[in-house]
Write a structure and sequence with these properties.
Elements lengths: L10 H6 L14 H12 L4 H5 L5 E3 L8 H8 L2 H4 L3 E3 L6 H9 L12 H8 L4 E6 L1 E3 L3 E5 L14 E3 L5 H9 L9 E3 L4 H10 L4 E3 L5 H5 L4 E6 H4 L7 E5 H6 L1 H20 L1 H12 L3 H8 L5 E2 L5 H13 L19 H14 L4 H15 L1
Parallel strand pairs: 1-2, 6-7, 6-8
Antiparallel strand pairs: 3-10, 4-11, 5-8, 5-9
Helix pairs in contact: 4-13, 4-14, 13-17, 14-15, 17-18
């Protein structure tokens, strides 16, 4: 990102709407400064967090863009301080991750969208949305190089390789008076790479793919990202942190402690962006250019906030477009969005670490009030 992105919701931006990568210019510039920053925060560890934890062995699904906050917390030893061991099996495809959560093979997911978990809840899965990761994913709308983009209405009458349950797109079309199901020809492909190949071949006019595909797009001279989902619907709630209700009821202290640690990591991210890119390169086992392809993009906005209002808006759009099970009419989606874990974690983190960056924590609190109350 060529511009400064200040904070959490990126410090400045957060008051307006939300988080982001922190200022690159304020990244740690020396080993000593990094060491001092880490040392100062570790002295604030609350031993009671570790004492009350119910689950010491957590399985957390990992996709191909990773969870930056979790990577930071592990790198700084904050997860170890809690006495927790986290296993991160890789699930590149959303369906596989959701199946693993439903079957109890993983305890937490955080990188697999909002629409898919909501659809599973509508179908009867008793899941809770307890936080978030990507508030705006860096999800490109891809076309052949040189294609002019005027707005989401460019999809009308065109072939689009994407899942029509992407409510950020269909909702924007509904708002403009279009019928997204009849006026757009949606095409399904097995993988994101197949979607991009379809654009190159001329089988479709556009493809909408995930954050982790930015590098692949950039490496193809025939393609370009003409827009991003967040251009179509800002702050649409890209990826939610989801657990089963049973897990939440059995492990409330675990969830709160994890969220508190992730909030600390979010603050660190806002002031150490370049360092975090290097960390993610190693964490993901990829080249730095792969990570920079999305982390250096203003559309990549991440936060742990649950974004209750945005999730409810997504549920409403999915209902209007027919992508919720018939059972959805019997469900109050608010019963599946539990903001209490995050709110308690935020209050405690502010009390314990707030002096390190008062503006960050003040903005985080304001954003929470705006998007959840």
């Amino acid at each position: 990102m060529k511009k400064r992105i200040v904070s959490i919701l990126l410090v400045a931006a957060m008051s307006v709407s939300l988080f982001a990568c922190g200022s690159k210019e304020s990244s740690s510039s020396s080993d000593d400064s990094k060491k001092d920053s880490s040392a100062s925060t570790s002295t604030h560890m609350n031993a009671s967090d570790a004492d009350g934890i119910e689950d010491k062995d957590i399985t957390w699904a990992k996709d191909n863009s990773g969870n930056t906050f979790l990577a930071i917390a592990e790198d700084k030893g904050w997860i170890d301080d809690l006495g927790i061991k986290i296993d991160e099996p890789n699930f590149d495809e959303t369906n596989a991750a959701l199946t693993a959560l439903a079957g109890g093979q993983v305890d937490i997911i955080s990188n697999y969208g909002t629409n898919a978990p909501l659809q599973e809840i509508a179908s009867g899965e008793d899941w809770l949305i307890i936080g978030g990761y990507m508030a705006q994913g860096c999800m490109p709308i891809v076309a052949k190089k040189g294609t002019k983009w005027n707005g989401v209405e460019d999809f009308i009458g065109k072939k689009v390789a994407a899942d029509p349950s992407l409510y950020s797109v269909t909702g924007a079309l509904l708002d403009k008076g279009y019928d997204p199901l009849t006026q757009v020809e949606w095409k399904s492909y097995p993988t994101s790479s197949d979607q991009l190949a379809a654009v190159v071949k001329g089988e479709v006019d556009y493809a909408v793919v995930g954050t982790s595909r930015n590098y692949e797009v950039q490496q193809n001279p025939e393609l370009e990202a003409v827009a991003y989902q967040s251009d179509v619907m800002p702050w649409y709630s890209c990826c939610r942190m989801v657990v089963s209700r049973e897990y939440a009821e059995k492990n409330p202290n675990t969830i709160k402690a994890i969220l508190k640690t992730l909030i600390r990591a979010q603050e660190y991210y806002t002031t150490h962006h370049d360092e975090c890119e290097e960390l993610m390169k190693d964490y993901m086992g990829v080249d730095l250019d792969y990570v920079k392809a999305y982390m250096d993009n203003d559309h990549f906005q991440i936060s742990n906030d649950p974004l209750k209002h945005e999730v409810m808006k997504g549920w409403e759009i999915l209902g209007k477009t027919g992508f919720l099970d018939e059972n959805a009419k019997n469900i109050n989606i608010e019963d599946h969005i539990d903001t209490s874990f995050y709110e308690e974690a935020l209050n405690e983190a502010t009390e314990e670490y707030g002096d390190e960056n008062p503006e960050f924590y003040s903005n985080l609190k304001s954003f929470y009030e705006e998007h959840n109350k």
